[in-house]
Amino acid sequence: MPRSDTGHQCIECSVVSCKFHDQQGRCSLDRIQVEPTPMAYTGEAADESMCGSYKNR
Ligand code: SF4
Questions:
Q1: SS3 string of the chain?
Q2: Which end of the chain is more exposed for a tag (fewer CB within 10 A), N or C?
Protein backbone atom coordinates (compact mmCIF):
# COMPACT_ATOMS: atom_id res chain seq x y z
CA MET A 1 0.00 0.00 0.00
CA PRO A 2 1.49 3.37 -0.98
CA ARG A 3 2.39 5.85 1.69
CA SER A 4 0.04 8.80 1.99
CA ASP A 5 2.82 11.27 1.22
CA THR A 6 3.88 9.61 -2.04
CA GLY A 7 3.91 12.22 -4.78
CA HIS A 8 4.07 15.08 -2.31
CA GLN A 9 7.68 14.88 -1.34
CA CYS A 10 10.38 17.24 -2.52
CA ILE A 11 14.06 16.39 -2.58
CA GLU A 12 16.00 19.57 -1.96
CA CYS A 13 19.65 19.30 -2.93
CA SER A 14 22.57 21.67 -3.43
CA VAL A 15 24.95 19.30 -5.21
CA VAL A 16 25.32 21.25 -8.44
CA SER A 17 27.81 18.80 -9.93
CA CYS A 18 25.10 16.11 -10.13
CA LYS A 19 23.30 15.62 -13.45
CA PHE A 20 19.97 15.35 -11.62
CA HIS A 21 20.28 18.74 -9.91
CA ASP A 22 17.76 21.10 -11.51
CA GLN A 23 19.69 24.35 -10.85
CA GLN A 24 16.85 25.53 -8.62
CA GLY A 25 17.97 23.66 -5.55
CA ARG A 26 16.06 20.47 -6.19
CA CYS A 27 16.60 16.93 -7.36
CA SER A 28 14.76 16.02 -10.57
CA LEU A 29 14.45 12.34 -9.64
CA ASP A 30 11.22 10.89 -8.20
CA ARG A 31 13.23 9.03 -5.61
CA ILE A 32 16.79 8.66 -4.44
CA GLN A 33 18.75 6.09 -2.49
CA VAL A 34 20.55 7.35 0.59
CA GLU A 35 23.47 5.13 1.50
CA PRO A 36 25.86 4.86 4.41
CA THR A 37 29.40 6.05 3.87
CA PRO A 38 31.79 3.13 4.39
CA MET A 39 34.12 3.32 7.38
CA ALA A 40 32.60 6.52 8.77
CA TYR A 41 31.91 6.41 12.47
CA THR A 42 31.77 10.04 13.50
CA GLY A 43 27.99 10.22 13.98
CA GLU A 44 27.90 13.36 11.84
CA ALA A 45 25.37 13.42 8.99
CA ALA A 46 27.88 14.66 6.43
CA ASP A 47 30.22 11.78 7.27
CA GLU A 48 27.71 8.97 7.75
CA SER A 49 25.39 9.34 4.75
CA MET A 50 25.55 10.12 1.07
CA CYS A 51 23.34 10.17 -2.01
CA GLY A 52 23.74 6.86 -3.82
CA SER A 53 21.82 8.19 -6.83
CA TYR A 54 24.43 10.85 -7.62
CA LYS A 55 25.72 10.96 -11.18
CA ASN A 56 28.34 13.39 -12.36
CA ARG A 57 27.29 15.71 -15.18
S1 SF4 B 1 20.63 12.40 -7.26
FE2 SF4 B 1 21.27 12.96 -5.17
S3 SF4 B 1 23.00 14.34 -5.43
FE4 SF4 B 1 21.90 14.22 -7.37
S5 SF4 B 1 20.48 15.94 -7.37
FE6 SF4 B 1 19.39 14.15 -6.59
S7 SF4 B 1 19.63 14.24 -4.36
FE8 SF4 B 1 21.15 15.60 -5.25
A1: CCCCCCCCCCCECCCCCECCECCCCEECCCCCCEEECCCCCCCCHHHHEEECCCCEC
A2: N
